[in-house]
Amino acid sequence: MTSDSSFLLIGKLASTANTTKDTVRHYDELGLLKSRKRQAGSRLYTEFHSECVERIELIKSAQAIGFTLTEIKDSLNDYYDGQLDIDSQLNLTQQKLTQIRKQQATISLMIEMLTERIEVLERMKADSGYKLDIEICKKKTPVQP
Questions:
Q1: What's the pLDDT score for residue 99?
Q2: What letters, b where the CB count within 10 A reaches 16 and e where it falls short, cover 12-28?
Q3: pTM score, whole prediction
Q4: At residue 140, does pLDDT exceed 90?
C-alpha cells in the first residue's frame, strides 16, 4: 500500500497532534480538517493533509481562549485559503472579549455569593439560633448574560 507522504492516517495525525482519533474524526466531520478518502482493497481509509497538525494546534489555541468550533471553522478556512478578513476577525475577537468579560463578572458575583453562603452556614453551624435573611440573598441573584 503506497501513500503520498504529505498525507497521514488518522492514528499518526492524532499522535503527532497530541489528540485523539475521536477528536480528529469530529474536526473532520465539521470541516475543520483537510482529508481525502482512499480505497485500499476492500477498505476505505481517510487520509489527512500534513497541515492538519498545525490546524489542530490552532483549533486548540482558539478553543482555549473561548472560541467555539463553529466560530473557529470559517476563520480557519479563510486563513488557509488566504482570504482572512482582518476587520472581521478584529470585530469577532472584540465581541468574544466582551462576552468573556460578562462571564467574568457573573463568575465574580457567584464567588461573592458562595463566599457569603459559606459564612452564613458557618454562623448557622456555630449558633443554632441564627436565621438566614432571604431578602439579602434575593438582591444579589446573578443575571444571565
A1: 95
A2: ebbeebebeeeebeebb
A3: 0.72
A4: no
